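Structure tokens please, single chain.
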Amino acid sequence: QAQLAESGGGLVQAGGSLRLSCTWSELAYTMYNVAWFRQAPGMEREFVAAIDWAALKTIYADAAEGRLTISRDNIQYSAYLQMTSLKPEDTAIYYCALGAADQLSTLDGGYNVWGQGTQVTVSS
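Here you go.
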């Protein structure tokens, strides 16, 4: 059984919205920070947003600020990425990742549990 699973991706027109979900299976992960990364075809994986375990602090990439919102519900063992005003350049595989570091990180190395990813495609 996968430790972490993403869902909610799909095909949407530019200007549309999607809500990605990330669900984990272990109670211990409710104490982990959660981040979303994305990887477009032919590009390096890049940071999108992160939230600390208590949902007290969030950080965003510049490209996400104002359009994407990260949240979490530890009772549901889940985190979410609400995406609005989507653009074709948002097209990518979106990955959820968990990490136990004291501080939120924008780097891959700050997270040690990864999901398989969910495809988001934004048509123009």
